[in-house]
Amino acid sequence: MSKHKFVAEHRGLLAAGAAVAAIGIAAGVVATAGAATPQDISKAPVRKVVVATTFSPVSDAAGAKAVTYKQDLVPAGARVQVKEELRRQGGTRIELRLRGLVPNRVYGVHVHTKPCGALPADAGPHYQDRVDPTQPSVDPVYANPLNEVWLDLTTNKDGSDRSIAVVGWQFREGAARSVVLHEMGTAMHPGHAGTAGARLACVNVPFE
Fold first, then answer.
1. N- to C-terminal Cα distance for the chain?
2. pLDDT per residue over 11-69, tens digit each?
3. How many Cα neighbours within 13 Å face the side chain of 17?
4. What sign does the dihedral 134-84-179-164 (CA atoms) show?
5. pLDDT at res. 32
């Protein structure tokens, strides 16, 4: 759910509460703690998206939830889980878990704009909250972990690890559709910001 839609819905709830309070006052009744307040919003359930699957070889890309393009670094059968939580007061938390990868290795990981395909480039560019007018984006003003979602990690001796990213915004509807693993950690310096080498694997995630 986009941030503006979230706010619009709760403005409707607050307006309805105000109307009820006005009726009560007109009848000589004092409003009580039962009226709608910001605390009511905090009781709403957290919206989540969870994708848990295994990486398939590129030959099965058409029907796969996750695909590997380089099996020596992301083996077919390795496990992945991506969980998105939309925070009640705005913002998004994304958690990545990986198992069965190369031990003791750094992987760059980002949210991308398009679904996975048979080619690594099919996933499109990184998702950006404020879109860089110059593409590909290598300007750290735009290519940074506050404006994008970076989930870089270093696997342990068993080839497993998890990473978490928290951003102060929510995805535009339909504009974020995958998580891509890269061959190295993400660069941050001008002219290379956001780059992390070749795309090794991709996971389809219907982010909200």
1. 5
2. 443 344 444 333 343 333 332 333 344 455 556 678 899 999 999 999 999 999 999 99
3. 16
4. positive
5. 31
